[in-house]
């Protein structure tokens, strides 16, 4: 499935807009990763634990969005974007992937 942040794909005109599709993931950060991140706040450096959780949540939201688009017969998703938000006491991360499911017609 073709997924793009642009609203059109050169050489593949959109023939049908099927609607907005989304994928959402809420990921919790465990206490050990939170403790490690706290040390990095004091001493500096990157938090590999948080980065790994972010990558996993982002991939999960993306895959869910693509699966929903496939369920309605889409050939692609245009206008794709992510949004991120912390929830709860700041120890949960929500990632949403959003785009418009479409069908294409290749130019002859």
From TrEMBL:
InterPro entries for the chain: UPF0145_dom_sf (IPR035439), UPF0145_YbjQ-like (IPR002765)
Domain of life where this protein originates: Bacteria
Pfam family, one: YbjQ_1
Family: Belongs to the UPF0145 family.
Name of the protein described by the UniProt record: UPF0145 protein HMPREF0044_0188
């Amino acid at each position: 499935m073709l997924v793009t942040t642009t609203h059109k794909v050169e050489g593949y005109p959109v023939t049908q807009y099927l609607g907005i599709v989304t994928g959402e993931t809420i990921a919790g950060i465990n206490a050990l990763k939170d403790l490690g991140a706290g040390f990095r706040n004091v001493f500096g450096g990157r938090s590999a634990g948080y980065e790994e959780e972010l990558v996993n949540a982002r991939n999960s939201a993306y895959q869910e969005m693509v699966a929903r688009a496939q369920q309605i017969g889409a050939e692609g998703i245009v206008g794709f974007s992510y949004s991120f938000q912390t929830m709860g006491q700041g120890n949960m991360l929500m990632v949403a992937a959003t785009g418009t499911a479409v069908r294409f017609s290749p130019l002859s």
